[in-house]
C-alpha cells in the first residue's frame, strides 16, 4: 500500500520510510553497544509494534530472542482508557533476563506505565523501553524511555504498524489522517 492508494484519507506523510530506516539503524547501533556481550530479549507489543520489531531486529547485530505481548487499552477509538487487559502474555519467563520493550508509539504513556510495573514484578535483570514514536504533549505519566525514534506532535497517526480501526497498518511510512476519517 502506498500514499496514492490512501486517496483522501491521508492528510500528510509525517515520517517517510527512508527516515524510519535511518532512525532504526541509529537506534540499533546504540542498542548493540549497550547490550554487547549480554543476552537480550526484545518484547514487541502487538499489534502496533510488529513493523518496528521486524525492522529493528534485522538492523541489530546483537543476537536476540523475541517475544510478544498483546494488551488492550483503546477499543476501536483513539483515546487511551488507562485500563489495560492482557490479551496475550509472554511465552517466556523473563526473570533474570535483559528485557527491552519495543513499542510503536507512546501517547499518554498509560499503557506502557502499566506494562512496566507488570514486567518489573517478574524480576528481569534489566528492563528498558524503545519506541519509534512519542507524543510529548500527550504524556499523562512520566516514563523513562531509553531509545526514542521521533518525538511527534499530538496528532493521531497511522501507518508502519499503527492503525485506525485496524486499517492503514501496512503503510510503509507514518502519516496523519484527514479529520473527516475519524470525525474530527
Ligand atoms: P497510550 O496513550 O496508553 O497509548 O500511551 C498506547 C497505545 O495506543 C495506541 N496509539 C495510537 N495508535 N495512532 C495509532 O494508530 C496514534 O496516534 C496512537 N496513539 C496511541 C498504540 O497502540 C499505542 O501502543
Ligand atoms: Mg492501536
TrEMBL record:
Compartment(s): Cytoplasm
Q: Record's superkingdom?
A: Bacteria
| Recorded GO CC terms | cytosol
User: Would you kindly state one Gene Ontology biological process term found in this protein's UniProt entry?
Assistant: IMP salvage
Pathway connected to this protein: Purine metabolism; IMP biosynthesis via salvage pathway; IMP from hypoxanthine: step 1/1; Purine metabolism; GMP biosynthesis via salvage pathway; GMP from guanine: step 1/1
Reaction(s) catalyzed by this protein? GMP + diphosphate = guanine + 5-phospho-alpha-D-ribose 1-diphosphate; IMP + diphosphate = hypoxanthine + 5-phospho-alpha-D-ribose 1-diphosphate
What's the cofactor? Mg(2+)
Name where it mostly resides: cytoplasm
Which key words are in the record?
Answer: Cytoplasm, Glycosyltransferase, Magnesium, Metal-binding, Nucleotide-binding, Purine salvage, Transferase
Recorded GO MF terms: guanine phosphoribosyltransferase activity; hypoxanthine phosphoribosyltransferase activity; magnesium ion binding; nucleotide binding
Which Pfam families does the protein's record reference? Pribosyltran
State which Enzyme Commission number(s) the record gives.
2.4.2.8
Location of the Phosphoribosyltransferase domain? 18-164
Report the sequence similarity comment from the record: Belongs to the purine/pyrimidine phosphoribosyltransferase family.
Protein's UniProt name: Hypoxanthine phosphoribosyltransferase
Q: Which organism is it from?
A: Streptantibioticus cattleyicolor (strain ATCC 35852 / DSM 46488 / JCM 4925 / NBRC 14057 / NRRL 8057) (Streptomyces cattleya)
